[in-house]
Specification:
Length: about 190
Amino acid sequence: MMDVSRAAAAVAEGGLVVYPTETVYGLGADALDADAVGRVFEAKGRSHEKPISLAVPTVEAAFEHTDPTEREQRFMDEFLPGPVTVLVEAGEEVPENLTAGRSRVGVRVPDQPVARKLLEGTGPLTSTSANVSGQPSARRVAEIDEGIRAACGAVLDDGECPGTESSVVDVSSGSIHRRGARAADVAAWLD
């Protein structure tokens, strides 16, 4: 049973939620709240040297928190929503712990109805797989570590996710940091 409004309320209170995407299950928290972002790192056992991406409901919403170049905007218009993460200049309100102190942040616009509905109610969420760092990503809620599920104020179960992680792209350097979904299309666009 999915209660998106309950999940949004958990995020508003600084809590964590598990949500489905068109790739794998994600672990979400208010991406603009450094304390909430810290709880994501803690739940995953993730190194603070590794950045976490930011998910938004639309490309236009991304522009409110980032400063992409014209070329990056064209790329985002072409590939988002979808299973692609685009690195762009972070806005001032994006916490340093989300970007691991870098000036750029990964932006995701999930092409998944439950995720988009949640994001419309919460604003930017962390976009990272709902797994303990180093463990496989979860395609089903049952595969998510019990410790992560226990740390969450809500778990939105929408059945099985496809499983291919997003491609991570730096349009400014023309490089693909992680080859995932749509990698061939991304490479063709960058050429």
